[in-house]
Amino acid sequence: MKSPNTGLYANLAKYNLPYPEAIFDIQYFHMDPRPFYHLAHELYPDGSRFRPNICHYFIRLLQEKNILLKLYTQNIDGLERMAGILPSNLIEAHGTFATAHCIRCDKEYSQHDLEQAVLQKQVPKCKEPQCQGTIKPDIVFFGENLPESFHSHPQDAAEADLLIVMGTSLEIEKKRMAIT
């Protein structure tokens, strides 16, 4: 996503954002969720374009052998779920598209409701008559805290016999500019 000239942030000019990271900035989302939803249409993990790879199935094998304590992922693509990793074994550190909530009244919305809007390039709105707030997938935007599930298992590292880190540098370089 962050590869120079070819990564996600390098290809956001068409959204006319004040800075590339605004696409995932919660303050900007509150002001204008349309760029995020146009991008979400391109990235949505509907299973037709993106598929789990051998690493996802390796983790599922660990689960099947009952030796997986937890899988922590920073990915929001849902490929772990597609591969069959049970939600009880999964800590999605940057959240998930599997659930969504209204940013105004916090009503929960299903993945199906969110998916229909995303695939139609629409900004989903709350169905509560008095609300009409914007529905946001439960992914973590800049300016939001990591999900409670990320913090609720502090003993995992101490209990693990083996820790496997793959597919990440465990770093995020973030350059921010003020929203104008």
Automatic annotation (TrEMBL):
Active site (catalytic residues): H94 (proton acceptor)
Alphabetized Gene3D superfamilies for the sequence: SIR2/SIRT2 'Small Domain (3.30.1600.10), TPP-binding domain (3.40.50.1220)
Zinc recorded as keyword: yes
Record's keyword terms, sorted: Metal-binding, NAD, Transferase, Zinc
One Pfam family of this chain: SIR2
Record-annotated Deacetylase sirtuin-type domain positions: 1-180
Binding site for Zn(2+): C102, C105, C126, C131
One Gene Ontology term of the molecular function aspect: histone deacetylase activity, NAD-dependent
Any one GO CC term of the record: nucleus
Domain of life of the native organism: Eukaryota
PROSITE patterns: SIRTUIN
Keyword Metal-binding: yes
Full protein name: Deacetylase sirtuin-type domain-containing protein
Taxonomic placement: Eukaryota, Metazoa, Ecdysozoa, Arthropoda, Crustacea
